[in-house]
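Hi P.,

Sorry for the delay on this. The queue was packed all week, but I finally got your sequence through. Input first:
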Amino acid sequence: SAFAQQPSAPQSLDRIAAVVDEDIILQSELDRAIANIRGQYAGREAQLPPGDVLQRQVLERLILIRLQSARAASTGMRISDEEVNDAVNNIAAQNKITVDQLRQQLAKDGLNYSDFRNSLRDEIVVQRLRQRFAQGRINVSDAEVDVALAAQAGGNTQYRLAHILVALPEGATAEQIGTGQKKIEGIKGLLD
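Then the structure:
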């Protein structure tokens, strides 16, 4: 005997919320991120901006994170599962709960544990990129040190210095090492 097929209920398709280079952000991802923010502000919803503004701000943040993740991947930066586990353990410890209790709390708030871990991974990537950028940008010249010392000459200002780095290229020659040593002695003389 033939079975009559019942029409299936219509299913909504996930839409694309944004295109980021060769990647996309789905509307469902955006909705989850907004729900996460609203969950964090439960009982304090008045502190949140209007819905359209919140959606735009969250989407901009997702786009920025996606761009930074792509940049990290292109430089070979990888975040291991162990690093994500450490971050999860730290969050649980800060909240004085176990990891299982954290999972239960996330589920209660309607958040998927896998999505939570992925967002933590993204946060770690962003932090690492910022650290790399900051370390690459810090470069104090001898002239800047001289100007700062001259500006403070005669004052009673005291400084506690932990480290002063005199950088040498990899595989430095004896002459470069000698020049570096002279710089160190000169700085020490100024401090003394």
